[in-house]
Amino acid sequence: MTALSTLIYGYGNPGRQDDGLGNAFVDEMERWATSEKLEGITFDSNYQLNIEDAAAIAENDLVIFVDASTEDIEDFVLTPVNAETRVAFTTHAASPGYIVDLCRQLYERVPATYLMHIKGYEWAFREGLSDKGRENLEKALHHMKSLLKNPESMVREFQEF
């Protein structure tokens, strides 16, 4: 059986404390995947999503976007990203839903796509995560590591969504 191609893509600004949670998630997951010798997983991170990312996600079976969140959540939440989510593109940012919709339009493909929202607390112009942000990152990493042991189930669940 061929391994699924999986992209884990974190975004945010590591120079703004917890805004760098997505980037830190990618760094930690990449170290873990390398140590576990997992195949088929690629990693990327940036300050924000760009329209060019539609091409990157088109090449994958499973895509996990990761971002810091100010939402009223406990620590983290993983939600499916629907291609029908119509969030407008601006010159500053594109949403995961917009990127998935663009992928559908340009490449006639919608990979199983999720967004990992990690609760952040501190947003000052300084590097390093807050203690509470770091705790939430660790919880999100633990959860994702268990899911990636069977990525096919994530694809199946997305198809049922």
Overview of the structural elements:
The chain is an alpha/beta fold. 37% of the residues lie in helices and 20% in strands. The chain contains 5 helices and 5 strands; from the N terminus they run E-H-E-H-E-E-H-E-H-H. The protein has a 5-stranded mixed beta sheet with strand order 2-1-3-5-4. Helix 1 links the parallel strand 1 and strand 2. Helix 1 crosses helix 4. The longest helix is centred in the C-terminal third of the chain and has 17 residues. The protein is globular and about 40 Å long. About 3% of the residues have low confidence.
Features:
161 residues; alpha/beta; 37% helix
Low-confidence stretches: 88-92
Q: Please provide the ordered H/E string of secondary-structure elements.
A: EHEHEEHEHH
Average of pLDDT? 92
What general outline do the C-alpha atoms trace?
globular
